[in-house]
Amino acid sequence: MGPLAPPAVRKALTWICAAGLGKTDERVPGRAQPAAKQEHMTMQIPVITVDAFTNRPFSGNPAAVCLLDNDLDEDLHQKIAREMNLSETAFIRKLKPGDDFSKSSCFGLRWFTPASEVPLCGHATLASAAVLFHVQKNTNSVLTFVTLSGELKARQVKDHIVLDLPLYTAYPQELKEVEELIKAAVGDMIVQDVRYSPDTKKLLVRLSDTYERSVLENLKVNAQHFLSAEKTGKVKGLILTVKGNSSGKGHHFYSRYFSPWYGVLEDPVTGSAHAVLSSYWSEQLGKKEMLAFQCSHRGGELKISVRSDGRVDVAGQTAVVLKGNLTF
User: Fold this and answer.
1) Which residues cross the membrane (predicted)?
2) Which domain holds residue 106?
């Protein structure tokens, strides 16, 4: 390294040398050499990154999808999720010998944030279905995923994938109990309604109808502060929502979603949050068919159909942006 090398270059070269990447073979005839390290078996897992609830790359909500022929060690799921460092990493696994990603119709499915496993993730389920339908060319009309939230089904309808999700009721919540958390999220903004979903541990905060979409979009939120502001221990996700355009041609409602309790400060587009939002806004608007938009900086659109059997169809588009292998 000459004296003219810039600091960044010197640092990089120092790292290369320290790692042994630039070393020559310095073996001396007659001198005993260290025993060769025993090679370990290399494992490869296919991984695909999919942007969900959008048809445009670099928008919607990205999820990494791993295809597993066999179960992994429990801690390896979490290590991979941390390595991918997206809001969720999904693991699709074959359930029995002879299963095939292009021909079978039922698979196991788990979801991990960089911090922990979660019981339900809509956008990573949409991404998983997209991988099977579009990448693996699965020929079934309906796919079934066995998950911590029961069996979830996905089907193709034209250029959308429709998820069959549980519908979760949000009940009136006493403001005083969560006042500090709400203040940490929206400051002195006018709050019109507060609901809590015990099944999902999500708090729904509806802002005043006087606020338009742009107000929610431009709201500066420091979700890290939620951890100290939430005193009850029962909230694991915060939904902020406003009523949409009353003309009937635009979106029926808008939302943003935060979950620092699971290591996700803000989730770009959240299917599981819409399992709660769908129930709430269907009741408020008197509608079963709705169009929703989650207005994070990436943004994403969801088509919603509330069913009479206590479930909800959430439909969205997808864009496959990356294909490769995890090697370890």
Assistant:
1) none
2) 44-165+319-327
The one-character DSSP state at 125 is H
Separation of alpha carbons 129 and 135, rounded Å? 10
Catalytic, out of 74, 88, 174, 180: 88
CA gap 256, 266 in Å, rounded: 8
Distances in Å between the Cα of 307 and the Cα atoms of 164, 165, 166, 246, 288 are 10, 10, 10, 23, 7
Residues 177 and 142 in one domain: no
Has residue 143 been placed in a domain? yes
Pairing state of beta strands 88-93 and 61-68? parallel
- The number of distinct structural domains making up the chain is 2
**What is the rounded average pLDDT of the residues 23-27?**
41
Comparing CA positions, the residue from 217, 172, 209, 173 lying closest to residue 191 is: 209
What is the pLDDT at residue 248?
A: 61
φ, ψ (nearest 5 deg) of residue 115: -105, -35
Reduce the DSSP state of residue 83 to 3 states and report it: helix
Half-sphere exposure in the Cβ direction for 39 (13 Å, CA): 3
Can 179 be counted among the known catalytic residues?
no
- The distance from CA 268 to its chain's CA centroid, rounded to whole angstroms, is 8
**Distance from C-alpha of 262 to C-alpha of 327, rounded to nearest angstrom:** 26
Kindly state whether residue 10 falls inside one of the protein's structural domains. Answer: no
Angle at 12 between CA 8 and CA 14, to 5 degrees: 115
In a domain, 29, yes or no: no
Give tens-digit pLDDT for 126-169.
Answer: 999 999 999 999 999 999 999 999 999 999 999 999 999 999 99
CATH of the domain at 212: 3.10.310.10
CA–CA separation, 292 and 254 (whole Å): 6
